[in-house]
Amino acid sequence: MSSSIRERYRAQVRDEAKQAALAQLAQGGPGALSISAIGKQLGVSGPALYRYFASRDELLTELVIDAYADLAAALAEASDQAAGQDPRGRLEAAARAYRAWALAQPHRYRLLYGPPLPGYDAHAERIVEAAWASMKVLLAIIGEQSLGESTQEAGLPQPLDAQLAAWAQSHSPGADPATALRAVLTWSRLHGIVSLEIAGNFASMGLDAGQLFEVQLAALMA
């Protein structure tokens, strides 16, 4: 077998394994991830599958990185489609895309923002780097121009001002602490309401999650 054929076969097996893993996540969450079960589904032994993923954690990391990339692409696409609008319009488009992605793939959203598995390093360098992709979209939109008084954060306490500056500058040179703060708070509010929605909390309260999101979005745009 030529090296190119082997590489294509390897890529195919890895892709099929990841699809099987995503199905496991949808059914039982990260704790249900099993290399042996995936191997059985693909018709290979568990040990054979370890030639493609050294461990369950390596497979999990690949799924996390893929999910971060897909989420960032969804936000960027929404922002690009609203390119003719002002930053508020682009931010609103990205916020709606964030919710839509989470509702369409709640198992992948929980993989990114749910509690980490015991012993799994959810803050490894590769994962942190992947997580930056979505935040860069927010920083780019918010940093385009002033969005009003709420973005002109003055007198931030030390060391928060320095922490925000260092955090933003590490990947978005030129982003000031006020822009970084607005991005972090925007993400925090979006994450909060979306997480509660996909967990079914609003439904159990008899509340319309869609309308609640619109109220939250209006507050973010104010």
Please state the CA-atom Rg, rounded to the nearest Å. 20 Å
What gross morphology would you assign? globular
Q: Strand content of the residues, in percent?
A: under 5%
End-to-end separation: 61 Å
Quaternary state reads: single chain
Taking pLDDT < 50 over at least 5 consecutive residues as the criterion, the unreliable ranges are 147-153
What is the tally of beta strands?
Answer: 0
Order of helices and strands: HHHHHHHHHHH
Main sheet: strands, sense, barrel:
none
Q: Helical percent range?
A: over 70%
| Main structural class | mainly alpha
A few lines on this structure:
Helices cover 71% and strands 0% of the residues.
What does this structure look like?
With 222 residues, the protein is an all-alpha fold. The chain has 11 helices and no strands. The radius of gyration is 20 Å and the shape is globular.
Q: Which properties best describe this structure?
A:
222 residues, mainly alpha
SSE arrangement:
Blueprint: H1 3-28, H2 35-42, H3 46-49, H4 56-81, H5 87-104, H6 106-113, H7 125-143, H8 160-169, H9 177-198, H10 201-204, H11 209-221
Helix pairs in contact: 1-2, 1-6, 4-5, 4-6, 4-7, 5-6, 5-7, 5-9, 7-9, 8-9, 9-11
